[in-house]
Each structure stands twice: as structure tokens, then as C-alpha cells.
Amino acid sequence: MTAPDLSTAYDAMATRYAEDIPDRYHSSPLNHAMIPVFAELIRAAGDGLVADVGCGPGHVTAHLHTLGVNAFGVDLSPEMIALARAAHPKLRFEVGSMDALTADDASLAGILANYSIIHTPPGHLPVTLTEFHRVLAPGGYLLLGFQAYDGPDELAEPFDHLVSLAYRYSPDRLAGLLHTAGLTEVARLVISPAEDPRRGFPQAYLLTRRPAN
Amino acid sequence: MTAPDLSTAYDAMATRYAEDIPDRYHSSPLNHAMIPVFAELIRAAGDGLVADVGCGPGHVTAHLHTLGVNAFGVDLSPEMIALARAAHPKLRFEVGSMDALTADDASLAGILANYSIIHTPPGHLPVTLTEFHRVLAPGGYLLLGFQAYDGPDELAEPFDHLVSLAYRYSPDRLAGLLHTAGLTEVARLVISPAEDPRRGFPQAYLLTRRPAN
């Protein structure tokens, strides 16, 4: 699916997403486990700007704000951005692609991509990660949350998803791609399949850092 | 080293530990990352009693309390327990062994063992894990934090430690022992070696659960 098609597909689903996803995020301790850690690290590194890419209805952008982080949201879907603005009128949200962020080189203290690479085909992933690296300041953090795949060799496994074809990624192989993109692993959280009652997939968070100069 | 010797060794180190360890715990976001998640899960499961085994000067017991968890501390070292009581006079601390807890069968909502198996020889670990399983209520959580070993085959690697011979454990192999003891993995966090400036070891947290009846 092309980016415009994906945007249209998420526009059609936006209201339903905005009703369900924030509740699920807040009610599952493991699904938001890494956000306070990420926020603490950003604050300790000097309080810079953070992009929540693929922000959807903006619930995690708002959570980061309550944790003292100067975060803004970006999403491909104009409808999703309209809902995010309506729910959080004081925060900044913009329509955009995570492959072509408007941020200047080395300008961000952090990037959160919370299940945002779910529709990114494996072959395209290096483009996305290179863009993340471009906008991160030295010492900046990238937190990547994703459906995980625990097969032995493959980078990714496709699966059916309500909106569009989706991929789950091998944490080890994805960590390798992040390393190639210039980002160093800081920590990883892997959540067991039983915690995902819908699909029974493991979930993972990879926290990486652009090395300080 | 026997349990009485270990107790004596920690007694001698207690004041120094009480000065350093709580600060290090609070100042490192990754070193306390799993505690709020553990606390949320305990509260969501109904607010039962939690044992912080190997509690040292009681800083994590106290953190759990500020997060709304009814936690008490247990430590082999009477001197450490005296310092914990002095620092947190409203909380409960008791001298005891994590291999012979005073709690009744199936009476605890959770156990935290934060770097407490560091001196447990690999061959003895099943005894300790069986004791943890005994006191956990069905549905109860065990959170185990430890220095990690990423070698391919071994359960553990010994290393020198200020107080006594220590061990770092393979997360995979330790997860296997936990499974054998009747505890199901819920999530694991692995922290990269660079985050441990002293020794350069990875660190890990295994969160497991005794299945609900």
C-alpha cells in the first residue's frame, strides 16, 4: 500500500482508533512501560524536543507531556491529526511522513515510533531508520515499539491487519539494522505473547541512542 | 560463602551500601525501569502484599510504597535491616533468608528480588525459585533483576564482587529454570553493557507470574 493509500485507510479508521487505542495503552502496564523511562532519559539529557512519529490520536504525545517532555506528534493521516488536536488542543500535531520529517538535521532529543513501522516493508526500513538518525541530535534517543517475531532467521513476517498488510519484526535483526543506521542499543523490552490477547504475538521495545559526539 | 558468612560480610559493608546504592538506583532511569510496571501490575491484580527479598537498605521497598504497593523488606544482614528501619521507620523490615521466607504458602501478590540472587550458586538456584513459587499466590508476580551473562550455553558465569563471589546469569537459561519452577515469563528487559559503567555487564529483569488457578 502506498503512503497516500495508507493515509486514506487510517482516515477511515480514525474515529474507531481514537476510541479504543488510548484506553488500551493506558490500561496495560506493559504497553506503556518504556515511556516513563524514555521520558526520564530525555529530561536527564537536557530537555530537548521529541517527535512522536505515527502518533495516531496523540495519546502517547500527551503522556510524554505529562511526564515533562516537550513532545509533538506527526501522522500520515489528516483525520487522525484532527482527532489528536481536538483531544489535546494545547499540543502540536502535524500531518507528515516519518520518512521525510520536517525537523532539521540533529535537532531532536528523541523520537518515539510506537508501533509506527507496522506497515513499513522490511526492504524500506533502512530508509526510515536513516531519516530517524538524521534528525536525532548526538546523544538523542530513539524508542521503537513493534510487534515482534521470534523466528530464527527472518527480519520480518507479514501478517493481516485491519488497515493494511502489516509486519512484525525480529528484535535481533532489527537491532542489527539500527546499528547499521548508526544507532547504539541501550535496552530492549520483550513482552510475552500472552500479554497480547488479540493476536498472541510478542511485542518489543528497542531503545537506541545516537552516540554523543 | 555460607549464609552466615554472607550476612557478616554485608553487615560490614552496610553503611557504605546505604550511602551509595539508593542514589545509584534513583539516578539511573533504566535501573528502576521495571519497578513502576511491577507496581501497576500488583495494584491491578488486587493490592496484595509484596516481599522485597534481599532488600538491603530498603530503598526499593520504599519506592514500591510510594507507588501504592504494600511491600515489606527481608535481608540476611541484620545491619542492613537496621539501616533500612532507620531510613524508613514506617515500613516493615525483617532479617531472614530468601530460601526460607516466613510467608505462608500462596500468600504474596508479588516478590521482588533486585540483584538478590547475585551470590546464589547456579546449582542452588532451583531451591530459591521453588521457595518463591511456594509463597506466591496464584496470579502473583516475581520480578528478578540480575547481572546478565550473554554467553551461548552456560547458565551462569562467576565474577569477583566486593562482598563475596558473585554470579551473572543467562536470561534465557534463567527463564528456563523459572519455567521449571512453575513460573511463566511475562516480560524481560535487557539493558546494554554500556549502561553499567563499573563492570560493563549487561543487566536484565525477568518478570514472571505464577499462573492463576
TrEMBL record, chains A, B:
InterPro entries attached to this UniProt entry: Methyltransf_25 (IPR041698), SAM-dependent_MTases_sf (IPR029063)
Alphabetical GO biological process terms: methylation
Molecular function in Gene Ontology: methyltransferase activity
Domain Methyltransferase: 50-140
A Pfam family recorded for this sequence: Methyltransf_25
Leader sequence segment: none
Keywords: Methyltransferase, Transferase
Descriptive protein name: Methyltransferase domain-containing protein
